[in-house]
Amino acid sequence: MKTILIIIFVFTFAISTKAQEWSYNFVGLDSIWDPYVYDLYNDGDSVLYIGGGFYYVNDQLSVGIASWHGDHIRTYDEGIDWGIVKCVTIYKDTLYIGGSFNGVSGNSNLVRLAAWNGNSWQMAKIGKPGEAVFDLKTIRDTLYLCGNFETISGSPYHKIAAYFNGHGINIGFMGMWTQAIETLNGELYAGGYWGLRRYLGNGEWETMEYIIDGVVYDLEVDTINSFLYFGGEFTEAVGEISMGVAMWDGFKINPMGDLHNWLTWYKGLQMYHGDIYVGNGIVYHEAEGTYETFINKWNGESWDSIGGNFNNSIMALEHFRDTLIIGGLFSTSNNQRATGIAKLYMPDNGCHYLKPRINTYADTFYLNGGEVDVNLYNNNPYVDSWEWDFDDGGVSTSSTTAVEHTYTEAGEYNVQVTVTDGECVKTANKTIYIELGNELPQYEKIDMQVHPNPSSNDFTVKVTLPNYNNAEIKIAGLNGHLKSVIPVTSETTIIPTKGWKAGVYVCNLFVEGKLVKVEKLVFE
Length: 524
Fold this sequence. Notes:
Blueprint: E1 21-23, E2 32-33, E3 37-43, E4 47-52, E5 56-57, E6 60-61, E7 65-68, E8 73-75, E9 85-91, E10 94-99, E11 113-116, E12 121-122, E13 133-139, E14 142-147, E15 151-152, E16 155-156, E17 160-164, E18 167-169, E19 178-184, E20 187-192, E21 195-201, E22 204-207, E23 215-222, E24 227-233, E25 236-237, E26 240-241, E27 245-248, E28 253-255, E29 269-272, E30 275-285, E31 290-298, E32 303-310, E33 314-320, E34 323-328, E35 332-333, E36 336-337, E37 341-345, E38 358-359, E39 364-366, E40 372-378, E41 385-389, E42 395-398, E43 402-407, E44 411-421, E45 424-435, E46 447-451, E47 459-464, E48 471-477, E49 482-487, E50 492-495, E51 503-511, E52 514-523
């Protein structure tokens, strides 16, 4: 019997020592039928909401929506009338569901978006979307929704919208369907047909050009390490192999290799015990014409196959009560009955969750007047402390993720940062190079001045260059994360500040790919 492995998994037999445990026993939840689970939502480790295209939970009619409370289930009238619940969230203590359904509990007015008031279904206060809703996300006091709609109750909203304090908010034009919403370090991101976008404020979005060769279905944030994972239907990221999953760290896109399948479904990413877990690794059995799907884990450097042997697609992952909950279209897992839902327990890996890095906007810096200021950024904003060693005799204990250090001699320096989070201590390294200014052609003719500074409006940057053929300005926040990239085509360049929060930013001037000048910007 010939078996073709579409995806080659890394089976480290050390897995057997990890004491991973699969379970299909949900107390009070016997079955979901038909097993079509599209979303799982954890409400404070108290309630697990289940959304999808199923009809019955146990023997109760509960089309598309139910909840599991650890020892019993709850249904919400008879659920939706026809279609699929694709997203679930809680906003201001109210349950919201979105999807492609045609009504709820006999009310044909409640299409594609509905809210449960505690006793019955009602229209969401933002209104009725004209087409499907794919994601709902509560961020602070605002409800965000995205999908394939052009209008909500007749008002124009182009695939994405927000709701706050009784009012709908138009947050931009997406053009094509939008599948997922997430935040990283206070910035709003969206994934969809066009890949990955970042919100600039005032209805404007920046498309991260040419990062993948396909579409994005899901976004997931590693908050302790400031990583944004995105999954979807693609095979490459920034020109390198990255099958169905990649990562943005605020500085660059990180491809994640070819050991996962090319497809990650709609809610198929989940952080669990410090690693990203992904559904839909595939093995295809040619003779039988069947396939099995698996859970894969990225440990920060490589893929591990966790297994599962599901007989159909994995659509959703969620972390609930120290367990990874898996939902999808499957009816068996590991040759056991598993109607649309399963549990995986993996033991905590201690300090493994902490993955420090050092980021800079260049590896090489140039002395000007006998010194150069180098900005260094760590990616762990929520740890207890940061200790820096600059490899020139200088050390620093910082209260933030970012430091600036002045070098006065040319050379190669191995910079280190040691981060402490409770009992966990990890060290990261980065090599930087300090060179003499005369090693950069015509360096003495390059100048940059910013005015006004501070400013409560746009900044004007005056740049003196031998020519303006290959120069750009990169603006970063003090956490180092890229804010914008602006081509320099003449002596005067305007830095627009629309959507900026008050604070300090860093203006980096690059000429022919080399970082040559840095100035602080104070925005009031």
